[in-house]
Amino acid sequence: MFPAILMAYGGFILPTNVPANEFLNLEGQKFSKSRNWSIDISDLLLTFDSSRIDAMRYTLATILPENRDADFT
After folding, report:
1. How many domains does the chain have?
2. Which of 31, 47, 51, 64 has the fewest CB atoms within 10 Å distance of its CB?
3. Tens-place pLDDT, residues 38-70
4. Which domain holds residue 29?
């Protein structure tokens, strides 16, 4: 999609490589809202005070999977 958007807009150098990440799993299973296997933002905000939200963002950013699936527990 991204290269197609650039082509439609015009005037951009098209990327030769578009990196993508693997899946982030929750306790060994894929996240799924339909199967109620997820973490809602409202629950995070109730669990952690506002000063710790940046720490949660940092943690998620550091464990983002690049070569294989990663697990969030």
Report:
1. 1
2. 51
3. 988 888 888 887 778 888 888 888 888 778 888
4. 20-72
Q: Which residues contact 38 (CB under 8 A, 6 or more apart)?
A: 26, 31, 32
CA 46 to mean position of chain CA atoms? 21
Annotate 3-57 with DSSP letters as a single string.
Answer: HHHHHHH-S-PPPS------PEEETTEE-BTTTTBS--HHHHHHHS-GGGHHHHH
Phi, psi of 70 (to 5 degrees): -120, 160
Regarding pTM above 0.70, the answer is no
Residue 56 lies in a domain: yes
